[in-house]
């Protein structure tokens, strides 16, 4: 077994440009963006857990990479993980695989709604929800979150209204929510679930960030609320964010309802997206079997990074952190700087040297905000925060 050093393995600076990582790629940071704080893509700068690296190395050493089945222990490890981490009992035969979460979201929309049907999203929300629905010719109905005294909550009155429209067939729930960092509470999820059930709206719950939750908060899987909620839900999870293996894993689609599950299975087969990648499978099995201590340590490191941001922003008037409950994506409100839209992102790039995700790509509610990924070394974050403080100082001088 490789040993995991609990002191500070996440302080190791690894050059993401040694591989064509998207986070630092010109496609994302633009030309001449090599010196920017690359905070615009949702992955971590940290190595995957040692157990994952070891399992992949062992599989590599085997040397033969012909067709293979899913290892017998993978789903067992996942079921155990969900039970131990989230107190969520899932039957093994309710779990299907998909190449990734977005594939599963697109398949759910194409299988269980028709062209022209409406799907609810809750902006500001992960921009790919919009792309998937547009590309599948579904109408997007927006149920914006309410931003009140620094906290986001759902607008249930508006949700009831929009869910009750005959064309509305589905909602894409983001739990925990990218980008605002809310880890939805049990009561909020129940209220949403009851509204959706009343109006025949299927809940497709993207719970990809569910393992990355900060102290004092608890991730509640929507389907764990009870059988009536599970029966009206398709849950998408994956170890991609949890263990930083987005480019070498698959995702899991959990469907309790037998008819929907069979339909999904047939579609998996029709599209031939049911193949097995041996590296993905051993990585996922190792992560779910032995990754818990690593995850605990990475969350502690991220919490410390959040604290660095909190402390720095106290010295920067006009820039406010929306307190995150989970995920490593911070939602920062720059509206107080009084800059126009283009001006703000020019300021962040040219003056502060930050490459971020622009708030309005998550919906117009995100104007003047930026999503900032803080899953990087402490040293890098400190430098970035120092640059922001200097730039903001110049702005006010
Ligand atoms: C909420 C959410 N869903 C889905 C994805 C993309 O998942 P995948 O790469 O498995 O398609 C992301 C990636 O950032 C995400 O944040």
Summarize the structure.
Helix content is 39%, strand content 15%.
What does this structure look like?
The protein is α/β, with parallel strands linked by helices and 397 residues long. Helices cover 39% and strands 15% of the residues. It has two domains: 9-49 and 292-396, Alpha-Beta Complex (Aspartate Aminotransferase, domain 1); 53-290, Type I PLP-dependent aspartate aminotransferase-like (Major domain) (Aspartate Aminotransferase, domain 2), CATH 3.40.640. The protein has 13 helices and 15 strands. Strands 2-10-9-8-7-3-4 form a seven-stranded mixed beta sheet, with helices on both faces. Helix 8 links the parallel strand 8 and strand 9 (233-237). It is globular and about 65 Å long. The structure holds pyridoxal-5'-phosphate (PLP). Pyridoxal-5'-phosphate binds next to helix 4.
Distinctive features:
alpha/beta; 2 domains; seven-stranded mixed beta sheet; 39% helix; globular; binds pyridoxal-5'-phosphate
Form type: globular
The distinct bound ligands, ions and cofactors come out as: pyridoxal-5'-phosphate
Beta content comes to 5-15%
Mean of residue pLDDT? 96
Topology summary:
Blueprint: H1 26-29, E1 37-38, H2 50-62, H3 72-86, E2 95-98, H4 101-112, E3 118-121, H5 128-135, E4 139-142, E5 146-148, E6 151-153, H6 156-163, E7 168-174, H7 186-198, E8 202-206, H8 227-230, E9 233-237, E10 251-255, H9 258-270, H10 278-290, H11 292-314, E11 320-322, E12 329-333, H12 341-351, E13 354-355, E14 357-358, E15 369-373, H13 378-396
Parallel strand pairs: 1-13, 3-4, 3-7, 7-8, 8-9
Antiparallel strand pairs: 2-10, 5-6, 9-10, 11-12, 12-15, 14-15
The protein binds pyridoxal-5'-phosphate (PLP).
């Amino acid at each position: 077994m490789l040993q995991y050093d609990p002191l500070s393995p996440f302080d190791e600076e690894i050059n993401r440009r040694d591989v064509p990582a998207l986070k630092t790629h010109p496609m994302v940071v633009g030309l001449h963006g090599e010196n920017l704080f690359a905070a615009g893509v949702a992955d971590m700068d940290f190595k995957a857990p040692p157990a994952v690296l070891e399992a992949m190395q062992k599989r590599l050493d085997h040397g033969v990479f012909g067709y293979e089945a899913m290892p017998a222990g993978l789903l067992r490890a996942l079921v155990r993980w969900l039970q131990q981490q989230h107190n969520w009992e899932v039957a093994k035969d309710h779990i299907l695989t998909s190449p990734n979460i977005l594939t599963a979201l697109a398949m759910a929309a194409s299988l269980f709604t028709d062209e022209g049907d409406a799907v609810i999203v809750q902006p500001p929300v992960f921009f790919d929800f919009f792309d998937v629905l547009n590309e599948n010719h579904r109408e997007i109905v927006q149920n914006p979150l309410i931003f009140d005294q620094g906290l986001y909550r759902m607008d249930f009155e508006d949700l009831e209204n929009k869910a009750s429209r005959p064309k509305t067939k589905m909602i894409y729930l983001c739990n925990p929510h990218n980008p605002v960092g809310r880890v939805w509470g049990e009561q909020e999820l129940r209220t949403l679930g009851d509204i959706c059930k009343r109006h025949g709206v299927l809940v497709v719950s993207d719970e990809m960030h569910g393992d990355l939750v900060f102290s004092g908060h608890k991730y509640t899987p929507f389907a764990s609320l009870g059988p009536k909620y599970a029966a009206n839900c398709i849950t998408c999870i994956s170890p991609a964010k949890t263990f930083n293996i987005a480019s070498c894993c698959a995702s899991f689609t959990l469907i309790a309802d037998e008819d929907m599950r069979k339909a999904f299975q047939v579609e998996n087969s029709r599209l031939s997206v049911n193949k097995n990648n041996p590296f993905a499978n051993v990585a996922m099995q190792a992560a779910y079997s032995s990754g818990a201590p690593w995850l605990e340590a990475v969350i502690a490191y991220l919490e410390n990074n959040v604290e660095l941001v909190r402390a720095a922003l106290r010295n920067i008037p006009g820039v406010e952190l929306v307190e995150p409950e989970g995920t490593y994506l911070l939602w920062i409100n720059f509206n107080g700087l009084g800059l126009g839209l283009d001006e703000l992102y020019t300021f962040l790039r040219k003056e502060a040297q930050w490459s971020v995700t622009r708030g309005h790509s998550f919906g117009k509610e995100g104007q003047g905000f930026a999503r900032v990924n803080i899953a990087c070394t402490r040293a890098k974050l400190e430098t970035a925060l120092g640059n922001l403080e200097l730039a903001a100082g110049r702005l006010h001088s």
